[in-house]
Amino acid sequence: MNADIKGNDVVVSNVRDFLLSQTLECGQCFHFVRLGEEDYVLSAMGRCLHVSQRGDNLIFHDTSMEDYVNIWEKYFDLDRDYGAIKAILLEKDDALKPAIDAMWGVRILNQDFFETLISFIISQNQQIVRIKQIVAGISYNCGRELAPFPVVFPDAKTGCSETEGKSTNPEIVLKGVCYSFPDADAILAAGVERIRECKAGFRSPYIIDACEKYKSGIINEKELRAADYTDCIEMLKQIKGVGDKVANCVALFSLGKRNAFPVDVWIKRSMESIYFGKETPIARIQTLADEKYGEYGGYAQQYLFYFGKVNEIGKKTRK
DNA sequence: CACCAGGCGATCT
DNA sequence: AGATCGCATGGT
What we know:
Layout: E1 2-6, E2 9-13, H1 20-25, E3 32-36, E4 39-44, E5 47-54, E6 57-61, H2 65-75, H3 82-92, H4 97-102, H5 113-122, H6 128-142, H7 184-190, H8 192-200, H9 204-216, H10 221-226, H11 229-236, H12 244-254, H13 265-276, H14 282-293, H15 297-310
Antiparallel strand pairs: 1-2, 2-6, 3-4, 4-5, 5-6
Helix pairs in contact: 5-9, 5-12, 6-8, 7-9, 8-9, 11-12, 13-15
The structure holds a DNA duplex (13 and 12 nucleotides).
């Protein structure tokens, strides 16, 4: 792997075990728009990034080498050997092979802690498309306007955005801006009713509680990073609306706890299908995951989650 | 158009 | 501890 400047872009060549679409669309992040095949715009880390992939070349458009090195290489987890990770996982359990083979290009992002925390509080009992809409709506209402980019985030519709009433096809809507995810001050300044207007529903007060605990220092990112996995989860669960599943997502996607294993409906179904053959309590699934995958639980989880969801493994079929 | 969604808190046994 | 239920809202 090698990063070079080409015009206004940074081009990373010889990328292995990475597919942009899989990494973005596997349900770990919500603030992006697909422009075309392996071509995306995302809002992350206080920036608007246009990124695309052609074969084993990854292109960071209109990006400085400084930003690539300081932000995006880490964000996309590119400085890690996923070939080795896959080998270890398969050695632990070759039942993972179909999932790893199909989802070979998934990497676990290193996302911003606060944005991840709020995003996964929003995620509870909601579909991914809906989570994206709410994240876009909150960003539109409370975030900063980033450098104009010739695409509107189409998911920011439904009363939260200027795209209302317009086409939501990014090929057609060609004028717009990209918004940053707001910080805790901006959300608190907006207030719970504004968050409700973004369709966060009963999660709205949970979001406010998270902001307050974050601001007051009860929730502290440095402490969470320094803490071991178990303590980290317990600290996160002090926040209203954060249970085991949300805490594990935040720990995995933004705090570097790669042994975290979030158990949601899809993981539950997949694990039941592979290991139990029947309905099984979440606690037992969690325990089995820890025994089987240990320190690599997070990676196994992402392969299994995305594979299970795409193939609707274990989903009840309607007659 | 019911059913359900990357769940959780409250309120029961 | 474990089992149920309500929750806001709209995608499929």
